Structure of Sn-glycerol-3-phosphate ABC transporter ATP-binding protein UgpC:
Amino acid sequence: MSDIQIENVRKVYPGNVEVIPDLELSIAAGELCVLVGPSGCGKSTLLRMVAGLEPITDGEIRIGGRRVNELEPVERDISMVFQNYALYPHMSVFDNMAYGLRNRGTAKPEIQRRVREAAQVLGLEDFLQRKPRQLSGGQRQRVAMGRAIVRDPAAFLFDEPLSNLDAKLRVKTRVEIRDLQQRLKTTALYVTHDQQEAMTLADKLVVMNAGRIEQVGAPMEVYARPASLFVAGFIGSPPMNIIPADRVPGLAAHDTASAGMTIGVRPEALIADPAGPVEMTVRVVERLGATSNIHGMLPDGTTEVIASVTGETVPAPGDTARFAAAKVDLHLFDAEGRRVSE
Ligand SMILES: Nc1ncnc2c1ncn2[C@@H]1O[C@H](COP(=O)(O)OP(=O)(O)OP(=O)(O)O)[C@@H](O)[C@H]1O
């Protein structure tokens, strides 16, 4: 097991395009660290720099205490799993998984042992003689993971590995990856733009925005105490309601209204209450089964609010509905979007 240290890393692409100004990140040995953020925020660039597929402009990256800046990808002792699987179509599953070991001159019996072991872990024993085209998308992704596992690397790097799978398979494979990582305890860096995937997989969640880290923490910590308006809006689904404090005077203390502050309140923290301070005109009600999302508009006519409620009885479009929230469920942000509440 190896840790990964990213220190003062900067990335400027040719043409003087600075996409990562100065980034620090420490990933402990055995930890699954997930980088999440909107398209273009620099997640893939960071992962590719750790992999050695992209040179870094400034700073240092260490894997297991060893500086890897100048090392080629093959010398870094990492395994990558890509979105498109990158399997060799003409080779069997066994040969695909054995490829890296053969290249390194590993002895035949050792290759047999490791591939069979990985196939067992991944439930691929019955598919070893098949070609990739004879497998489903989920099975192909497992072969790609098998190929990563057999090398017993210092770290796994995952680049959006689930984005080619359909929704159901994505959830299933997500659980498999989590389970696998917990058993193997291999350090992993995982990139996704899907906040739900990030929340469920991560030991350490890193929210990126425009080449910078907005917040690092355990998923539930980030969910419970988002450090900025950006994180508040990005983590959680449906997203946290962001309400200018002066629009709902009764919701938070009066001194917040005058300071250009914003109140964040999660849809699931809004409780139906006929005397509640949050008044909305209901526009759309989404019934999801166990919960319903009520989409409405505040009296100001510009601030949209969502309340997630359980139960059979929900308001209808056009109704006026009122909600309250407990003080502990209010998140206050200053005019710069930084968290000010505890
Ligand atoms: N080779 C390149 N040359 C110049 N700019 C690049 C290059 N590769 C990426 N970029 C730019 O760097 C920024 C970060 O890209 P990156 O692919 O790391 O983002 P990302 O967060 O992984 O996005 P996505 O989720 O869409 O893959 C983007 O603005 C992108 O246009």
Q: What stands out?
A: The mean pLDDT is 92. Residues 4-233 form a domain with the Rossmann fold fold (CATH 3.40.50.300).
